[in-house]
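Ticket #4471: complex job returned nothing on first submit. Input attached below:
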Amino acid sequence: MKLYDYFRSSAAYRVRIALNLKGVDAHREFVHLVKGQQRADAYLAVNRQGLVPALVTDEHVVLTQSLAIIEWLDEVHRAPALLPDDAFARARVRSIAMAIACDIHPLNNLRVLNYLSNTLGLSDEQKNGWYRYWVDIGFEALEQQLAGDALTGEFCHGDAPTLADVCLVPQVANARRYKIDLLPYPTIVRIDARCRELPAFANAAPEQQPDAF
Amino acid sequence: MKLYDYFRSSAAYRVRIALNLKGVDAHREFVHLVKGQQRADAYLAVNRQGLVPALVTDEHVVLTQSLAIIEWLDEVHRAPALLPDDAFARARVRSIAMAIACDIHPLNNLRVLNYLSNTLGLSDEQKNGWYRYWVDIGFEALEQQLAGDALTGEFCHGDAPTLADVCLVPQVANARRYKIDLLPYPTIVRIDARCRELPAFANAAPEQQPDAF
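Support reply: We reran it on our side without changes. The output follows.
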């Protein structure tokens, strides 16, 4: 298996965590996003979207989109399960994952920040304000949802990590990088800390990757 | 079952299509996004995120996030399946759905467009340019992916509608509304037209909804 990866990509970070949780090894190929390697023909031949991650399976099938990759991993490597058995519980876990992956992260991608700076000519202050606004609005709702629900346990759902935690930890890492005040989000902070006690999460962190600088 | 809906929300439109394909009836409650009803306490008590759709099941469980809702529907009402049986095929369908739901649509949401106008003070021309940029960059990759893959059939995946088509049609409707030139995307246009021949898609269209104005 081969993972096209970039240490600072949150979407790739999710897949690194999931691979670690499943105990699945993947050869790593690094695509340097700031240098624009994702737009080079060599990478576009792998993933037309020009985004990381992409996972090439042992059958040479290219899988893209982090959540689609992780659902696939969870289907073919069942244990430990990243989605609960019960359909309502699965929906809850997926909805937490997607509140992050669809409603926070896409707004704060490198390509979006580049558009704000380069095409729209916004100042760094405006760009950082944009970044914080979408994290705060997303985390406020998520904090209330997690804190007010008995289904929340040590992790986002119960006492074992799921797809929701796999999405949460990279988003919290991004929030810290942008110096967002996390005091209003004690449940998020607690779950993030619990996750990072696990080697699967800790070893997937951006600063632990071979391509980190 | 009760669907919190708004005619022009693409995410709600996806759920309307899925309900129609499954032949599942839901009582409709309309949340007028332009009037800000999604931020009223009554709706925030249903969905803290203040986004539509939300689906309240017969067991009074509130489900949020359109793709999580549709995965749940597909698990509890199996036929017709919106995801194929094969794990690789499921990953392909989900990756197409998410290329739209994570990488195009979140950038062009009403709340994002409001931020561009109100907080950043951008002109309508800049805002429309932003809208078109993200649709074009997403559709360019998707067109190549669909056109170059033998797994594409009458629909995004084979000859029956899947979760991928459920996401594609609302995004094409949005593109038309913003007068984006669709000539460079013949495969997308062909699949969209094929989908709209089906009553499940046609009856879910924004202009067919009781709250449309």
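The mean pLDDT of chain B is 96. Closing as resolved unless it happens again.
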